[in-house]
From TrEMBL:
<protein>
    <recommendedName>
        <fullName>Activator of Hsp90 ATPase homologue 1/2-like C-terminal domain-containing protein</fullName>
    </recommendedName>
</protein>
<dbReference type="Pfam" id="PF08327">
    <property type="entry name" value="AHSA1"/>
</dbReference>
<comment type="similarity">
    <text>Belongs to the AHA1 family.</text>
</comment>
<dbReference type="InterPro" id="IPR023393">
    <property type="entry name" value="START-like_dom_sf"/>
</dbReference>
<dbReference type="InterPro" id="IPR013538">
    <property type="entry name" value="ASHA1/2-like_C"/>
</dbReference>
<feature type="domain" description="Activator of Hsp90 ATPase homologue 1/2-like C-terminal">
    <location>
        <begin position="166"/>
        <end position="289"/>
    </location>
</feature>
Length: 290
């Protein structure tokens, strides 16, 4: 195999580029130059399995079955391609599969200054495919730069707030401590948050389990902290690339305003998302003020 190595300087932050890689909608925008309708299924955390997929002319699902070998938020992603996907099967052993796998596809993000980030790719390719893949990666990096700098597919921001009758530091403690998070982090009484893991530092991870009390469904709400100042603000990037910011403002000796802003997802309506998140914030207020 040969290795393709290319870089592009993008006038944006590492968070925007990271979001363009891991968010399903934004991913489709820049990978369309490789194959129209390209998409992925899976996660971007270390150890996650992920499929990079498309449909061929006959309607078959084709692509690569891979694993995230390494993931360092806003810095580095290493993807190990393991096999070829065809519909519901994965081919690890055929001659065609051995042309493409096992191989690595690595992404590097380097913040150059406050306005620019350098994005570098290193991709293993079959010798015979080197020229064609090198050319298409040139197009891919141009498209990624365009998507990031024009903020294509921009998320809609939603903001909501609550005035909490409690001192600033108490509010911060209830917001960030797992023992308190599990008491308020749900929108209705038929749901709960049975587990909360929170590593509260820049680059730290949080994972909250949200579940219906009857056991019918559950999901993980998770992300990585990109910046925070105690008793002031928290900024994090969710695992689908969306950003979220929480401000804590001292209003009086025993009053604190919490202002939450986040990028809306594209599955539920904006109104439904506003209602759900405001309900969680109202529940937080109730728990703190008891």
């Amino acid at each position: 195999m040969k290795k393709i190595k290319k870089s592009v300087d993008i006038k944006t932050s590492p968070e925007v580029i990271w979001g363009a890689i891991i968010n399903p909608s934004k991913y489709q925008l820049w990978t369309s130059v490789f194959q129209e309708g390209s998409y992925f299924e899976g996660g971007w955390q270390k150890g996650d399995h992920i499929k990079f997929l498309m449909a061929d002319e006959q309607g078959h699902t084709m692509g690569l079955y891979s694993e995230i070998a390494e993931s360092d938020h806003l810095k580095y992603i290493s993807i190990k391609h393991l096999g070829l996907v065809k519909d519901d099967s994965v081919d690890y052993t055929s001659e065609e599969a051995r042309k493409w796998t096992p191989s690595f596809e690595n992404y590097y993000l380097e913040k150059i200054n406050d306005d620019h980030t350098r994005f570098t790719i290193e991709v293993d390719v079959d010798d015979e495919e080197f020229t064609d893949m090198s050319d298409v990666w040139d197009l891919g990096l141009v498209k990624l730069k365009e998507v990031c700098e024009k903020n294509s597919g921009a998320f809609t921001e939603i903001t909501f707030e609550a005035l909490i009758e409690a001192p600033l530091h108490q509010v911060w403690e209830y917001w960030t401590s797992p023992e308190h998070i599990i008491k308020w982090n749900f929108a209705s009484e038929d749901w709960h948050c049975p587990e909360a893991v929170n590593h509260l530092f820049k680059g730290g991870r949080f994972v909250y389990t949200m579940a219906a009390k009857d056991g019918s469904m559950s999901f993980g709400f998770s992300g990585t902290y990109t910046d925070l100042v105690e008793d002031s603000y928290i900024i994090n990037q969710l695992d689908d690339g969306r950003m979220m910011k929480v401000l804590f403002q001292k209003v009086g000796e025993a009053q604190t305003k919490v202002i939450e802003t986040f990028d809306a997802e594209d599955i539920n309506t904006i109104d439904l998302q506003k209602e759900g998140w405001q309900s969680i914030l109202n529940n937080f207020k109730k728990v703190v003020e008891v």
